[in-house]
Amino acid sequence: MEVDVADEVPIAEAGATFLVVANRLSVDRVTGPEGEVSWRTAPGGLVTALEPVMRKRGGAWVGWHGAPDEVVEPFEHDGYEIKPVSLSAEEIEEYYEGFSNATLWPLFHDAVAFPEFHREWWDSYKLVNQRFADAAAEVAAEGATVWVQDYQLLLVPQLLRAARPDLRIGFFLHIPFPPVELYQQLPWRKELLEGMLGADLVGFQVPGGASNFLRLVRTRTSHKVDRDRVQVGGTHVCTAKAFPISIDTEGFRELAESPEVVAEAEALLTELGHPKVVFLGVDRLDYTKGLRQRVRAMGELFTEGKLDPEDVVFFQVATPSRERVDEYRRLRDDIDLLVGRINSEVGGVGRPPIVYRHSSFPRNTMAALYRIADVMLVTPLRDGMNLVAKEYIACHPSDRGALVLSEFAGAARELRQAYLVNPYDLNGMKDVFMKALNDTPAAKGRRMRSLRKQVNEHTINDWADSFLAALDSGGSRAPGNEG
Ligand code: GDG
């Protein structure tokens, strides 16, 4: 089926000089009451950060439009080009739900769920990566800069370089890069490393990711490694470094201070019966986020009487995610059961101690929740960065707030003044939850101010600027290969 798009235009003759290649496009399709199709900018930090760069440089965004078996023609949106890539229903199952989300995702997150290896999934992954590379090669101007995003597209840098050696290629991995011992399980370990090495610059969330990658390159390929630089054959040098991602700090603060959000926060408190204390969790419903452990720890604090359900509420938002992948269905059932059991055991006839919402909320509601949360619980078993932790710091207005943060989130490297926890240690976690609640105002204030300074000084724009500056100035071409 072909979709008609009103402002459909051909990509400029000379091509785009700056491209982002990501699994998903930066826009969501909206269908009006008469069946008319329009596109709306998808919410999210990456789009916010990259749109200005796109407009300045003349850009294109290459990605899947979100529906199976459908060809959508390129079009212009907000001053840059959109180049949709199509996926068949079978490819969504094998490349996306399979290899990306049931092989790479669990393996790269410390195998907290069992990674599945299937040869058909790998075949599909290769095929789809080739399609993304072809689409980028088609719209890129001579010498353009191309920024490839994340684990769904690990092979694209190499495939793109093969087709277009004139391009400058960057790659950023949003999730952790695993330790050598785990990565080695992958039957396609060498191919995936070579795929990433096609880039001039490979970015990771934390330095540990870069060093895991470089160690693997040393042991599994024949390329010469000199500190963070890899001489890839005779063609180019690939540099591997950490570029911790962040948020639009000012944008979040302004949103949280807006009269609408302040009013919504008040309304939420009223709805909850004005509890003395609000604990908050906000996550995609994903087994890496440590929800089982967090809910159990909070449940025990309620059942042991350390938290009084009359005064305290634990509000947990779990945004629906990857619902067709088995492991995610199991998790959903587990959490439903756990929350139901705790709520039926603890508390009186009024509001339950755990308010659990398996749905996604508008940005305003998210900001309102951050405003009212006295203690924010961010306790993933493993996380590339975790933006929720940073958003809380940007949005929470008072010095009395407290952020509890897992040591295993990339964000813990920067947010040292959070109340750090090991999410596998239930008793330890319970102690830290209570400390975060009962610490002195002076101690909490010191921590919050230091955390705020960190997120003020390191924003999503700094992240994009520093990555692109490093990519532009790479000087990584081999002699005789200059564009
Ligand atoms: C991956 C990596 C890395 C969530 N629920 C709602 C909603 N959200 C927004 C949050 C936040 C984002 O989604 C989630 O970002 P995280 O960083 O917490 O986690 P992942 O989705 O796993 O992201 C992660 C990130 O990429 C960036 O590199 O930090 O480690 O896993 O912005 O606010 N937003 C709205 N409604 C919801 O219900 N509007």
Distance between the termini: 40 Å
Regarding quaternary structure, what we see is single chain
User: Poorly predicted ranges (pLDDT <50, ≥5 residues)?
Assistant: 1-10, 475-483
CATH topology of the largest domain: Rossmann fold
Total of DSSP H or I helical runs spanning 4+ residues:
16
CATH superfamily of the largest domain: Glycogen Phosphorylase B
Q: What molecules are bound to this protein?
A: GDP-alpha-D-glucose
Annotated CATH architecture of the largest domain: 3-Layer(aba) Sandwich
The CATH class of the largest domain is: Alpha Beta
**How many discrete domains?**
2
- Strand content of the residues, in percent? 15-25%
Major β-sheet strand ordering: 7-8-5-2-9-10-11-14-13-12
Number of strands: 20
Organism: Tessaracoccus rhinocerotis
InterPro entries: Glyco_trans_20
Protein name: Trehalose-6-phosphate synthase
GO molecular function, one term: alpha,alpha-trehalose-phosphate synthase (UDP-forming) activity
